[in-house]
Amino acid sequence: MRIEKAKKTKIKQIFNLLASKYGHYAQPEGQSILEHLIYYILSYDSSITCAKKAFKAFVQGEEFVDWNEVRVASNRNLKEFLQEFRCQPSSGEKIKKLLSNVFEKFHKLDLEFLRQKPIEEAKKILSSLPALEKHIIPWILAITHQGNQFPIDQKTHLILARLGVIPPKTEDTELDQILQASLDKDHILPFHRSIVEHSKKTCLEQGEMKCKRCLLRKHCLYFHLTEGEHPPQQTSLEVIEQRSKSPSHSKNKIKKRKVSQK
């Protein structure tokens, strides 16, 4: 698949800007595979600070003796525990489901044996766990097996479509090829985490986006189409699809640029 040079350049610029704001994310070292997965679930929908505090409390046994006690805990207890750290209560149910999947399949709460498996076999085993969303598997394989696939989730699709990097209905495999051709292998984890953080703080999935203060607005198709004013009763992707095809809108944008240049 041939990727335009301009697109590669834009993706690299986006990555560098996000890294300047959120840092070159480094996955905590010394964790087991199971702990990596649990930390990921905590940090995906909650702030990194809150996720770290909750994870530390889990590991130190402040409320639950071990992961098996978390597995058999009630959803209510997990919800109350996570609320103390301002983490999303739904994360408790996801963690409990993951632990139950692992225990039911392997009769133990341990996934370290996956490190000794070939990457394709490890991928197949992880894919058999219903609790793991599809995008989490390339993420954990990048840690355990130096896998080169990018985690492609809804947040990544949405933000890159808003930025104009991809059409809204791009397939996961095509987007992975675009990212692999544009970024280095060691950018897989920091790029994904930067996108996730940006989706929480600025380019929100739901609610009003903070376009006018977004550090990516210069590179953003949605911002250039709307100038940061969100049309009512339309999603961002509906706006892009509609206005990108509108010749009158394109002419108006060109006229505005010419006026601003005078």
The dominant shape is globular
Name given to the CATH architecture of the largest domain: Orthogonal Bundle
The strand count comes to 0
Q: What structural class is derived from the secondary structure elements?
A: mainly alpha
* Total helical segments: 14
In terms of per-residue confidence, which ranges show pLDDT below 50 for 5 or more consecutive residues? 250-262
CATH fold title of the largest domain: Endonuclease Iii, domain 2
Main sheet?
none
Q: Can you give the mean pLDDT?
A: 90
**What is the helix/strand order?**
HHHHHHHHHHHHHH
Q: How far apart are the first and last residues' alpha carbons, in Å?
A: 41 Å
- Helicity, as a percent range: 55-70%
- Percent in strands: under 5%
Rg measurement, Å: 21 Å
CATH class of the largest domain: Mainly Alpha
> What's the CATH H-level superfamily name of the largest domain?
Helix-hairpin-Helix base-excision DNA repair enzymes (C-terminal)
Provide the number of structural domains. 2
